[in-house]
């Protein structure tokens, strides 16, 4: 199912997202939505330009009401991080200081580790136009920065929060290849099924004089079998192929070919010379 | 330095981003910006609701003009992917089919590998409100889906493009070594060749009344296409399959079936209920 689903588990834990002097309510709302998408829930605003609450923020949050409703407002960054144990500052610019600079993946792993240990953490995001001041960065423990196109490096605040939230979610997964749902399980075919396919195809083709001239037949059969076996078709695939062959083999055409298909018949490659 | 910097190297390569029937110019612009942030440059639009070019898109792209200027518009999804070798469909919903479902990390690694091998690739993104249809997903090789909060799963289109673009960029940083080529070199097929196979098989089957009852035809076609596309057949494989179908389709049997093959014909599984 897509979209918001109130019957599913609502994940709402992890680092606080702290926006320093955000200007547009729309951006705050999109930040809330991105957080909700990836299981974060604690939003803190330092001195938002247009005040709080904000109807524009609620509207842009697309029903991430649990984030909007719990948002707290602070007058200074110091107050906003007072109760936290470990804080990242996000920045696109190189800073002069000594602070370790981490990728989003490493930062998310660090935040996850501290979360598991029971520490309270946070991530700072700067103003829309010019980010965090050096003094604000100085309040953080480490810096996180994004791997961007050097010639086109500006991420907006909601995008930056989205990427950090996404990495946070991934850091909690055992396997990065894990997906919320999977394809239909395919049963591997047995050799008997593969040979059944070979014989079925070959007999149907033979009955039409496909293997011509006769002395070339062994090589043509070899090639045909190579093509039909190299993908290790599943039981279901073999079953579908045999259904196709049976239908084409058994029943006469009821209608003449359409022009399009007749024209498409130019690819002929069964002479075994590949 | 943050922001756009024309003196730095502009990365502009990799998979095409294909938006199917996007509605808002703002979203198209934010998609272009997200692509530019992470080094992608080829944007394709299928039947955009408000036409193209779009001033709203250009404005929302925040100077990602190289992406906006090169954007191409197509009337159908088939035309938009005809020249590509390998295509991902993004979806939040579980689909019934055979297609492998990948995480963004795995998908980006696959796209990077194919890029290094010289294949042309693309990623499909659906409409703002309801994504891709099953028929559209059927045209892709594999599915990619995002690890989201189950109770708050809706990503907007620009967010989804941002995450895939970000993973694309990361896949290039991790993969500094060359990916070795396979021993036997197969040319990847184009979507035009895959669609040609679909139409060839379907017409030949239709002419025999295979799709029965008629109301089940769309589902049966879906399943057939899923089976015929999930392996990303090479040009050579498609050519062989078409040779088989053409032979079975065009020529009548000269001899009655042998007992063995007739007996093997018990596997019938084309009713689309898998």
From TrEMBL, chains A, B:
SUPFAM superfamilies referenced in this protein's UniProt entry, alphabetically: alpha/beta knot (SSF75217)
The name this protein goes by in its record: tRNA (cytidine/uridine-2'-O-)-methyltransferase TrmJ
Signal peptide from the UniProt entry: none
Location of the tRNA/rRNA methyltransferase SpoU type domain: 16-166
Enzyme Commission no: 2.1.1.200
NCBIfam families (alphabetical): rRNA_methyl_1
GO CC terms in record: cytosol
Gene Ontology MF, one: RNA binding
Subunit details: Homodimer.
Family stated for the protein in its record: Belongs to the class IV-like SAM-binding methyltransferase superfamily. RNA methyltransferase TrmH family.
Keywords carried by this UniProt record: Cytoplasm, Methyltransferase, S-adenosyl-L-methionine, Transferase, tRNA processing
Catalytic activity: cytidine(32) in tRNA + S-adenosyl-L-methionine = 2'-O-methylcytidine(32) in tRNA + S-adenosyl-L-homocysteine + H(+); uridine(32) in tRNA + S-adenosyl-L-methionine = 2'-O-methyluridine(32) in tRNA + S-adenosyl-L-homocysteine + H(+)
Biological-process GO terms, alphabetical: tRNA nucleoside ribose methylation
Location relative to the cell: Cytoplasm
Region of interest (Disordered), residue spans: 255-274
Purpose of the protein: Catalyzes the formation of 2'O-methylated cytidine (Cm32) or 2'O-methylated uridine (Um32) at position 32 in tRNA.
């Amino acid at each position: 199912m897509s979209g918001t689903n109130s019957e599913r588990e609502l994940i709402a834990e992890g680092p606080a997202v702290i926006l320093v002097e955000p200007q547009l309510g729309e951006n705050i709302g999109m930040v809330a939505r991105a957080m909700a998408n990836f299981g974060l829930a604690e939003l803190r605003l330092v001195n938002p330009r247009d005040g709080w609450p904000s109807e524009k923020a609620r509207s842009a949050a697309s029903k991430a009401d649990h984030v909007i409703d719990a948002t707290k407002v602070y007058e200074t960054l110091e107050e906003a991080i007072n109760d936290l144990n470990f804080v990242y500052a996000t920045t696109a610019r190189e800073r002069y200081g000594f602070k370790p600079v981490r990728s989003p993946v490493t930062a998310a792993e660090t935040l996850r580790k501290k979360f598991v240990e029971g520490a309270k953490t946070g991530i700072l995001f700067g103003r829309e136009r010019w980010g965090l001041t050096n003094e604000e960065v100085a309040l953080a423990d480490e810096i996180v920065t994004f791997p961007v196109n050097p010639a086109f490096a500006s991420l907006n605040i909601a995008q930056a929060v989205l990427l950090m939230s996404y990495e946070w979610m991934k850091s909690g997964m055992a396997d990065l290849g894990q997906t919320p749902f999977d394809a239909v399980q395919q049963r591997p075919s047995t050799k008997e099924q593969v040979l059944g396919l070979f014989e079925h195809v070959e007999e149907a083709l033979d009955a039409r004089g496909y293997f011509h001239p006769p002395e070339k037949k062994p090589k043509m059969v070899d090639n045909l079998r190579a093509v039909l076996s190299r993908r290790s078709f599943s039981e279901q695939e073999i079953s579908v192929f045999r259904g196709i062959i049976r239908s084409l083999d058994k029943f006469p055409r009821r209608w003449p070919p359409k022009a399009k298909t007749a024209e498409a018949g130019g690819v002929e490659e069964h002479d075994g010379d590949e």
